[in-house]
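Predict the assembly for these two chains.
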Amino acid sequence: AQKVTQAQTEISVVEKEDVTLDCVYETRDTTYYLFWYKQPPSGELVFLIRRNSFDEQNEISGRYSWNFQKSTSSFNFTITASQVVDSAVYFCASSGTSYGKLTFGQGTILTVHP
Amino acid sequence: SQTIHQWPATLVQPVGSPLSLECTVEGTSNPNLYWYRQAAGRGLQLLFYSVGIGQISSEVPQNLSASRPQDRQFILSSKKLLLSDSGFYLCAWSGREAFFGQGTRLTVV
């Protein structure tokens, strides 16, 4: 069984601040995948990134960056120069080789104030 | 491109009434399909998944059932709704990641 923990329930920042969302995972699988999803107020889940357990390279996409560290079982997400449009609930999730069978964390509510 | 449709967007149903939520996927064949539920203020929980027509796997015991009558159609049902069935229901299909529908917000009163 897999477990994902997002210890930060809510984070509030002012626009242009950098913010890091923490994610810690537990799994016994040797092959696994980690994901981040964004859930805006409309409710739909927007895919942000997938990483596999064999690739610990950090990734940057615009203002978003992800830090995957197997040694600490963490997959943290950083938003640089946050914007009001970044306000949403962010979910970290894991899966085995069946990508759609996701185990989600409880989510972090991010509020970016102007 | 693949798209996923889910309806209705919102639903208010009395306790004891039946439920039918429908999800269809376009642009792909034989997709893996999933139903998730998000209770208020909590993360998402996988309810059912299907790897093919008529093949349903249940992840948690509950008052709900799922069916897959066609390749790209996935239905979530209940014969008698409970208050605890209230929540946000999301259908998904997976390629190299899971793609979610718009969701149905169900309130049982």
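The interface with chain B takes residues 35, 37, 42-45, 47, 50, 91, 93, 98-107 of chain A (CB under 8 Å). The first strand of chain A starts at residue 3 and ends at 5.
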